[in-house]
Amino acid sequence: MPADTPYVVAHLGVSLDGKTDGFPRDETRFHQLVGTTWHEDVTLAGSDTVLAREPAMAPGPGPRDPGPLLAVVDGRARVTRWQELRDAGHWSEVLALHCRATPPRPVGRYVPELVVGDDRVDLAAALRALGRRPGVAVVRVVSGGRLVGRLLARGLVDEVSLLVHPVMGVGSRDWWGEAPPPARSLQLIESDTFGRGLVWLRYRVA
Are 72 and 25 contained in the same domain? Predict the structure, then answer.
């Protein structure tokens, strides 16, 4: 991991065969681990993940202060409900990560932007820019797999955290994205077991 970028952790709920969909994830345990382990300064999400959650979005209490920044990789400018994301009560602010090929945005659209990359968002440049923001030391990735895979392929993940659920043979999305990640050594940081067969595994990426 480049020295000028923040610590990046990918925390995912997965089945025993590595899928991120097709089963009921233990959201309570998942978010309990988030709240007590990393204390993220930035939540990094892909547009697919945000769009998948948009139908269930409801009016929230407003920005969380203090709280992490939500940065969304949105190279095609598909996300539209920025104000609702900001007001969801989880984040202090939102930030759209675009590239120079991102389609024109509506005039007067509310959301700060960071433009990095030509044809697609340059994730390394985005992380460097986020790391230059005051107080940003930890970035947690929220992803169904695709964004995690892109980050792994570029050597931009410091830690992989998997909350393994006791199911298999379900789902279609692998937690590492669309292609197997490059070969890397992983160092076990911590492991734990919880009720109902849940296993938590934390690895540092060499």
Answer: no
